[in-house]
Design a protein that fits this description.
The protein is mainly alpha-helical. It is built from 22 helices and 13 strands. The N and C termini lie far apart (about 80 Å). The relative contact order is 0.08. This is Reverse transcriptase domain-containing protein.
C-alpha cells in the first residue's frame, strides 16, 4: 500500500468536517489491506434529467460502450462514469443560466448585518426563518467538525495533519480482516454445530438461484430513495429515471456476479462517513460511528440477497451459504440480517452452556429462570453472581469472538448486580467491565433506569428528545398541514415506547402536549406566543366531531397501561410477566412476614 499523505486529504485552509477528513475511500481487498484517498466524486442530481435533451445525451453516453469495456460489472461502472461527465456539464450549464447558487455563509453575514441595523418586527417571518435555518446549519457543521482529538497515546492535538493520520490508522485497523487460523476454524465449526435448524433443498435453491428480470425490477423500485451515493455518485432516483436503457446492462451485471461469485475491485470500494456520536465526547475517535456508503451495483446485489434472507430467516443454515471472510459494515442492506444470524449463533452457544449447567440464569421461581433478552443490537444476559459462572460466561463470549471475528467492547459492557446489598467483589472489579452501583443511573433500550428513578427524570429525557427533533423542524418554512403531518409522524411517536414500558402521569403527558402545541402555533416576530387558532380540546376531537383527530396522549397512556395489565393477567409465557409475578409474590411474602412479626 502506498504511503498515506494526510496533507493531501485535509489542507490547512479547509475545515475538518464530514466532507474532508471523515470521508475517504477504503478499498477492501481479499488480503484485508486498504487504501485511503481524498473524497472526490460528483453527486448526480436527478432534476438535471428533466432539462430538455439531457436524457437523450445520457442515453447516448450510456450506449457508447468501448470495445475493451471488460466484464459486465466493469462495463456497468464505466457507463456511469460517462453519464456522470455528461451530467456534470449539464449542471454547469444550468448554474450559468440560472445564477441561483449562493454562498450560505455570506448570506448569513448579510442577514446578520441587516438584523443589527433593523428592528425585529420589521422582518418578515420568512426572513427570520431563513436566519434561524442558517444558524442551525452552522451549528450542525460545528457539531460535525473535529477540532481536536485524543490520539492513541493519550495526548490531545488540534493539528489537522495528526488528526487525519489518526483517523486513517484507526479505520485501517477497524476495516482490516483478521487472518484465519486452525484454532479459529475449529471454534467456528463448534459454534455452528450448536445450530440445529437447517434449510431444505428447496429453500437453499430459492436463496441461491439467479435473479429473474422481474425480481430485479421489483428490487430496484423497493430500494430507499433520498440516500447518499457512493463513489460512483449515482442515486436511486437517477437509476430509476434512466431505467429504460440501463435495465439491460444491470441485468447482465447481476448475472455475471451470480455466475462468477465475486465482485470486482471497484464494486468493493466504499466511502466511509463518520456519523455524529451519540454522546458528547467528540474528541474520542472511538465514539464516532462509521457508515459505509457503497456504490449502486453493490447496493442492488445486497438488496436482492437481503430480501431473500428476510423470507428464510426462521430456518436458515448459513454455514455454507456465506463464507465467513469479512464483516459487512453498517450501511449495507445485508448488515442487519447477517447480524441477526450471528447473534443466533451466540444465543445457541450460551443455551448449550446453560444445558450443561456451566452457566446458570437468574432464577425467578422454582421452575423458571431468566437468561437473556435481545432487542436489536442490545443484548442482556442474566446470570447468577458467582465467580465461576461469570468466568464461564465471559469464556463463551470470547469463543464467539474467535469464531465470528466480532469484538466484545468491555468498556461499554455494563454489569449490574441485582438483589444484593453486598459490596462488589474484587474478581468482578477486575473484569474491565463497567460496574453499575446500586444508586447509579444507566440507560437500557434508551430508557433511564436505576433505583428510585423519578418520573421527572424520565420526562426531562423525553423533553430533550422533543427539543432535538424540533431543532430540525421549527426553522423550516412549513405550511399548517405540513406541521400537523410532521407532528403526527414524529412528535407523537416519540413517547410511545416509554408509555408502553413504564407509563406517564397526566401531568407528564400534558407537558409533552404543550411542547407540541408550541410547535404548531409558533411565535411571532417579537418572540411572543401566537394566539391558538383552535382550542387544544377541539383540536384533539375526532374528525366527525369537528376536530382534527389528534389523539389525547393521556388516553394513549391509559390504553398502554390497560394492555399491560391484561397481559399480566392473561399471558403467562412472556419473560417480563414471569419477573413481574415473581416480584409481586416476593413482596407479598415479605409483607406477610412483616405482619406476622408485628402480631
Amino acid at each position: 500500500m502506498a504511503p498515506f499523505n494526510p496533507a493531501s486529504v485535509a489542507p490547512h485552509d479547509q475545515v475538518i468536517s464530514d466532507h474532508v477528513p471523515i470521508s475517504f475511500l477504503c478499498q477492501l481487498s481479499k488480503q484485508g489491506s486498504d487504501t485511503c484517498k481524498p473524497k472526490s466524486y460528483y453527486k448526480m442530481d436527478v432534476r438535471i434529467l428533466n432539462r430538455p435533451g439531457v436524457l437523450q445525451k445520457v442515453q447516448s453516453a450510456w450506449d457508447n460502450h468501448p470495445p475493451d469495456a471488460g466484464n459486465p460489472q466493469r462495463k456497468f461502472q464505466l457507463a456511469w462514469i460517462r453519464v456522470r461527465e455528461v451530467l456534470k456539464q449539464e449542471s454547469q450549464k444550468a448554474n450559468e443560466e440560472n445564477r441561483t447558487s449562493y454562498d450560505a455563509v455570506n448570506e448569513l453575514r448579510l442577514l446578520r448585518s441587516l438584523f443589527r441595523s433593523l428592528s425585529g418586527p420589521d422582518f418578515s417571518e420568512e426572513t427570520l426563518a431563513r436566519i434561524r435555518q442558517l444558524e442551525q446549519v452552522k451549528a450542525r457543521n460545528a457539531r460535525e467538525t473535529i477540532k481536536s482529538l485524543y490520539l492513541h497515546d493519550g495526548s490531545k492535538t488540534s493539528d489537522r495533519t495528526l488528526i487525519m493520520s489518526e483517523v486513517q490508522d484507526f479505520m485501517s485497523t477497524l476495516y482490516t480482516a483478521e487472518t484465519t487460523s486452525p484454532e479459529r476454524e475449529e471454534e467456528r465449526a463448534n459454534a455452528l454445530n450448536c445450530i440445529h435448524a437447517k434449510v431444505t433443498v428447496a429453500q437453499d435453491r430459492a436463496i441461491s438461484i439467479k435473479p429473474t428480470p422481474a425480481e430485479v425490477d421489483t428490487i430496484a423500485h423497493l430500494m430507499k430513495k433520498e440516500k447518499s451515493p457512493g463513489l460512483d455518485g449515482v442515486t436511486i432516483e437517477v437509476l430509476l429515471a434512466s431505467w429504460n436503457f440501463v435495465r439491460g446492462d444491470c441485468l447482465e451485471m447481476i448475472e455475471h456476479f451470480w455466475e462468477e461469485g465475486k465482485l470486482i475491485k471497484g464494486t468493493r470500494t466504499a466511502v466511509i462517513k463518520l456519523n455524529i456520536p451519540k454522546n458528547q465526547e467528540v474528541e474520542y475517535l472511538k465514539n464516532w460511528r462509521p457508515l459505509s456508503i457503497m456504490i449502486l451495483s453493490y447496493k442492488i446485489i445486497a438488496k436482492i440477497l437481503a430480501e431473500r434472507l428476510k423470507k428464510l430467516m426462521p430456518g436458515l443454515d448459513f454455514s455454507s451459504l456465506i463464507p465467513v471472510k469479512r464483516g459487512i459494515r453498517q450501511g449495507c442492506p445485508l448488515a442487519p440480517y447477517l447480524f441477526a444470524l450471528c447473534i443466533q449463533v451466540l444465543m445457541s452457544m450460551l443455551n448449550a452452556e446453560l444445558l450443561t449447567r456451566t452457566i446458570r440464569g437468574l432464577r425467578i421461581n422454582d421452575d423458571e429462570q431468566l437468561f437473556h433478552q435481545i432487542f436489536a443490537d442490545d443484548t442482556g444476559l442474566f446470570v447468577q453472581m458467582e465467580r465461576h459462572i461469570f468466568e464461564n460466561t465471559m469464556s463463551t463470549l470470547r469463543r464467539f469472538e474467535l469464531a465470528s471475528g466480532a469484538k466484545l467492547n468491555l468498556g461499554k459492557t455494563l454489569v449490574l448486580p441485582l438483589c444484593t446489598d453486598n459490596p462488589v467483589p474484587t474478581w468482578l472489579q477486575q473484569s474491565q467491565c463497567t460496574i453499575a452501583l446500586p444508586f447509579d443511573r444507566f440507560r437500557y433500550l434508551g430508557i433511564l433506569a436505576g433505583n428510585n428513578v423519578l418520573e421527572e427524570e424520565i420526562l426531562q429525557q423525553l423533553q430533550e428528545n422533543y427539543q432535538k427533533k424540533l431543532e430540525h423542524m421549527a426553522n423550516r418554512l412549513l405550511t399548517w398541514p405540513e406541521k400537523v403531518l410532521l407532528a403526527q409522524s414524529v412528535l407523537r411517536a416519540l413517547p410511545n415506547f416509554i408509555l408502553m414500558a413504564i407509563g406517564l402521569s397526566a401531568k407528564g403527558t400534558h407537558a409533552l402536549e404543550k411542547i407540541t402545541a408550541d410547535f404548531l402555533w409558533e411565535r411571532d416576530t417579537t418572540g411572543k406566543k401566537k394566539r391558538p387558532l383552535i382550542a387544544w380540546g377541539t383540536f384533539s376531537r375526532r374528525k366527525i366531531h369537528g376536530g382534527l383527530g389528534w389523539p389525547n396522549m393521556n388516553h394513549i397512556a391509559s390504553a398502554f397501561l390497560l394492555k399491560n395489565l391484561s397481559k399480566l393477567i392473561l399471558a403467562k409465557n412472556e419473560d417480563w410477566i414471569k419477573v413481574a409475578n415473581a416480584i409481586i409474590a416476593f413482596k407479598l411474602e415479605k409483607s406477610k412476614k412483616t405482619m406476622e412479626v408485628r402480631n
